[in-house]
Amino acid sequence: MQGVMVVDIVSVGVVGGGLMGAGIAEVCARAGLDVIVREVTDAAAQVARQRVAGSLDRAVGRGKLAAGDAEATLGRIRFTTAFEDLTDVGLAIEAVAEDEAVKLEVFAQLDAALARPDALLASNTSSIPIMKLAMATGRPEQVVGIHFFNPVPVLPLVEMVTSLVTRPEVVADAEAFVVGVLGKTVIRSSDRAGFVVNALLVPYLLSAVRMLESGFATAADIDQGMVLGCAHPMGPLRLADLIGLDTVTAIAQSMYQEFREPLYSPPPLLMRMVSAGLLGRKSGRGFHAYA
Ligand code: CAA
To answer: Where is the 3-hydroxyacyl-CoA dehydrogenase C-terminal domain positioned along the sequence (predicted)?
Structure first.
């Protein structure tokens, strides 16, 4: 599958500069591509830029990147609020909030903005059907799921998700790009809510929340149990905090809507925390507190 890239991808558009969008922009720019990140406001674009700069600083601090390369990487990323700036990209990756209505609107706007007929339109969704997003465009066969994992610069996996109508050449190009250019490892999934990883991960995270909610163990002990007992890099509640409790809830709701499986239903504690703005690491407090 590698090396069959038909579409010429020298510049990538990323819609959304949050945790995932900023990470995707960073890995694309680190691979030498020109990247345009579209955010809704100048202030949000500025925050996205700071997010990328902070991650690059961390990479330099950890000895993963030379300081000069970090500066060059940031120099390859342009931040904008205009969809029209994405006109000439060969690949656009949508990474906005896990909200179907918002994503549908983004896909309609991308469809209007992208001029190249061979452009790939990708979504980083964790759980919303690619088929639905594809049908918001006039070119559903060009739409594919390219699902990254957080933190994007660190985790090597990408799930490649094809809808019922995605053209095989589009999948081949997307996979050649992700593997050959970004250096990630691909697993393939068909288009069902949660794909492979979240179908396994989300019930586990929700079980940890239910365990805390029922009062039979503390957050610290639940997390320590899985770190020391199963050698996971972090426990489930800290991981939920890393992903973002709003995102975990949204993924669980999409999965529940699709399968009606009680295991996927978000527990009340999780929903109350989202209502309270306790969203995890990004808001400073979730199941744990962050400086
Ligand atoms: N760029 C490149 N490398 C970086 C980096 C950056 N910005 N930041 C950190 N790293 C590297 C570090 O150099 C280090 O590598 P070495 O071990 O080779 O030195 C490694 O990443 C770990 O970094 P740290 O030591 O700073 O941090 P840590 O050991 O505390 O690990 C963690 C932090 C990577 C987040 C780790 O705890 C982890 O992998 N946790 C699990 C994360 C996970 O499961 N994510 C999936 C979430 S699910 C998802 O995203 C999908 C969805 O749809 C919800």
So the answer is: 194-290
Contacts by residues 112-119 (CB-CB < 8 Å, ≥ 24 positions apart): 112/83, 113/83, 113/84, 113/86, 113/87, 114/13, 114/86, 114/87, 114/89, 115/87, 115/88, 116/88, 116/89, 116/90, 118/6, 118/7, 118/8, 118/90, 118/142, 119/7, 119/89, 119/90, 119/91, 119/92
Query: Which of 159, 175, 189, 254 does the annotation list as catalytic?
Result: 159
Within 6 A (CB) of ligand 1 lie 55, 58-59, 62, 64, 126, 149-151, 153-155, 198, 201, 233-234, 239, 243
End-to-end CA distance of the chain: 44
Tell me phi and psi for residue 289, to 5 degrees: -100, 145
CA dihedral 66, 67, 68, 72 (to 10 degrees): 100
Residue 168 CB neighbours (<10 A):
9
The domains located in the chain, with CATH, are 4-189 (3.40.50.720), 198-282 (1.10.1040.10)
Instruction: Write the ipTM.
Output: 0.92
